[in-house]
Structures are given as C-alpha cells and as structure tokens.
Amino acid sequence: MNDAAPQAARTKLRLQQLPHGTGLPLPAYHSHDAAGLDLLAALPQAEPLKLAPGSRALVPTGLVLEIPPGYEGQVRPRSGLALKHGVTVLNAPGTIDVDYRGEVMVLLVNLGPENFIVMRGDRIAQLVIAPVTRVDIELVEETSGSQRGRGGFGSTG
C-alpha cells in the first residue's frame, strides 16, 4: 500500500528578476508540501527599512511575474513574522492579476510594539498561485432561501 499523498498538479510560473533583485534567491517552497513560495525583500544592502510601530511600507521583491491564464497570485503574510513581531501583510491576501506585469511589492504593516527592521533578502511574505473562477452575473428579484437566512456576523453561534 502506498501512503504517499497524491502529487498536486504543477504549472509553470514565468518570472523576471529585476536588476535590484539580482543575487537574491528565486522564490522557493521551503518544505515538500508547502503551499506558498517565499518572497524576499529586494532592498539595497546598505539601506535596511525601519518599520516603526503602526507604520506601513511597500517593500520591493525585484520580481515581475507572468502568471498563467486561469490563475492569480496571492500575497499572504508569514505566520512567524506575525507571531514574533506583529508584522503582517496589510491587504492580505493581496491579489496579483494574470495581466499585471509590474514589480511585485509587499505592503507590510508593523502592528507590534517595537521597530522592525527589514533587511535585503529577508523573507517577508508568501506567494500562493491559485486557480480563479469567473462568474456571469444574473440579476434576480430575490435570492433563494437558506437555513441560515439573512443572519449576519455571529448569527450561527
């Protein structure tokens, strides 16, 4: 009996490394079954970024992605940064559309009580490539009912 988990389908992600990202490792999965590729800060070596408590900053990655049709890129926080330092991605998950060809930037926010220093090459976020489902909108007079009904936040206990 084979207990190995089924291998997920793989697709190709084309990317360009911009000059200020030269020398940094490319995004990589850091465990066999990881969902996210680590994104690194492409800051100048001599210019670390100081993120004061309550402040936010757009951090360059030095990457331009060519996401395949039918997919999107999701920029997500790194749990270790959030737990240890209170640093997270402000617009999480940030969406990178298939037709975007600008540099991937990560909007970090420091929700912790102390300054946080971002250095060149620091792992600052995760990139998840996920399928996208598009819908056709149909205007109706009333939607169908459900057991929950119109209950809002917290209405299910």
**Spatial strand sequence of the major β-sheet:** 1-4-8-6
Helix content: under 10%
Based on DSSP secondary structure assignment, what is the total number of beta strands? 10
Structural class category: mainly beta
Largest sheet: 4 strands, antiparallel
Question: Layout of SSEs?
Answer:
Elements (H helix, E strand, L loop, with lengths): L13 E4 L19 E4 L8 E3 L4 E11 L4 E6 L2 H7 L1 E3 L4 E3 L6 E8 L5 E3 L4 E9 L26
Antiparallel strand pairs: 1-4, 2-10, 3-9, 4-8, 5-7, 5-10, 6-8
Structure commentary:
By secondary structure, the protein is mostly beta strands. It has 1 helix and 10 strands; from the N terminus they run E-E-E-E-E-H-E-E-E-E-E. It has one helix at 79-85; strands spanning 14-17, 37-40, 49-51, 56-66, 71-76, 87-89, 94-96, 103-110, 116-118, 123-131. Strands 1-4-8-6 form a 4-stranded antiparallel sheet. Strands 2-10-5-7 form a 4-stranded antiparallel sheet, with no helix packed on it. The longest helix has 7 residues, at 79-85.
What's this model, at a glance?
This protein has 157 residues and is mainly beta. The protein has 1 helix and 10 strands; from the N terminus they run βββββαβββββ.
List keywords for this structure.
single chain; 157 residues; mainly beta; four-stranded antiparallel β-sheet; 34% strand
